Amino acid sequence: MALYAIGDLHLSFGTDKPMDKFGENWTLHYEKIKADWTSRVTETDVVVLPGDSSWAMSFSAAEADLRWVDGLPGRKIIFKGNHDYWWVSKNKMTGMYNSIEFIHNDFAVYEDYAICGTRGWICPNDAVFTEQDEKIYKREALRLENSIQMAQKAGFQKILGVLHYPPTNDLKDPSLFTELFEKYGIEEVIYGHIHAAVNFKYGVKGWFRGVNYHLTSCDFLDFKLFKWL
């Protein structure tokens, strides 16, 4: 059983927002994702989606996108991104799709690992960071720590980290998120959110203060899944 990840699918089967306006590489990007996914993932594998799965503004509009994801091989673990306005209560979504697990204020399980995470937020010293951002940033850090502590209380010693936003600002300064990953000994973390080659330099990638970070936005991955474990 393998573990994969790919973020920022930005599907729009239920709404009119094609991604090719962001570049030719996005033309029919979902077909590229599906081709790679179906060639590698088996029904016993797991794929983590760290946010921005759908452009939909409502859950009903997102259902076409979620059905598309549900129809692909493997078990899917979906976290919330900043554009997932369709996201409703976990109670409403749980059980609606055979292969999808929605994670919010809790954690998922892969073999003997707990997969813990939250959406995250922009970090201090970002050029547009405001007092309101400070509140959300601290709240998201608390959610991350709660997720980790829940997994530890459940007996998990091996934990993987997930964010939607990058774990640092553009200057790659330490943040509450990086401090929590370090505090709890989490060595593997994925995130998304960053798009376009001109911006890929801003995300911390590889080993940083003892933690191995992986950018998994789908255009960074050339629309191919990242094999995590």
UniProtKB/TrEMBL annotation:
<protein>
    <submittedName>
        <fullName>Phosphohydrolase</fullName>
    </submittedName>
</protein>
<dbReference type="InterPro" id="IPR051158">
    <property type="entry name" value="Metallophosphoesterase_sf"/>
</dbReference>
<dbReference type="Pfam" id="PF00149">
    <property type="entry name" value="Metallophos"/>
</dbReference>
<dbReference type="InterPro" id="IPR014578">
    <property type="entry name" value="Pesterase_CT488"/>
</dbReference>
<dbReference type="InterPro" id="IPR029052">
    <property type="entry name" value="Metallo-depent_PP-like"/>
</dbReference>
<feature type="domain" description="Calcineurin-like phosphoesterase">
    <location>
        <begin position="3"/>
        <end position="196"/>
    </location>
</feature>
<dbReference type="InterPro" id="IPR004843">
    <property type="entry name" value="Calcineurin-like_PHP"/>
</dbReference>
